[in-house]
Amino acid sequence: MASQKKQDDDAKFSRIHDVVTENYTKLSDEFAKSQQQNVQAISGLQQAYLESVKITVKTTFSVQKEFLSNSKLHYPALDTSTTHVDSMINHSNADL
Questions:
Q1: In angstroms, rounded to a whole number, what is the distance separating the alpha carbons of residues 87 and 96?
Q2: SS3 label, residue 74
Q3: Phi and psi at residue 60, in whole multiples of 5°?
Q4: Cβ contacts of residue 78 below 8 Å, gap of 6+?
Q5: How many CB atoms lie within 10 A of CB 85?
Q6: Which phi and psi angles does 18 have, rounded to 5°?
Q7: Burial readout 55-64 (b: 16 or more C-beta within 10 A, e: otherwise)
Q8: Whether the predicted model's global pTM rises above the 0.85 cut
Q9: What's the pLDDT band for 7 if we cut at 50, 70, 90?
Q10: Element containing residue 55 per DSSP (H, E)
């Protein structure tokens, strides 16, 4: 009788262990999936941020170039100023 009870208890504990293992495996798999989605989302945000910085820099350099090349300025810009801005634009295009 005692051995039958022990076998029943062992079977119950074995079943509990199997269920816990299965649930832990499911939980781990779902966590891994969510982490992968989070990494992809963050990567997308970083890419969008870098693209917006690139556009901002190009726009800033273009505005400076347009301002410096405007012949109606009260104080005309030196030719070296526009050359320097052109150089910065070319350098930024090469890096990005």
A1: 14
A2: coil
A3: -60, -45
A4: none
A5: 21
A6: -65, -40
A7: eebeeebeeb
A8: no
A9: confident
A10: helix 2-69
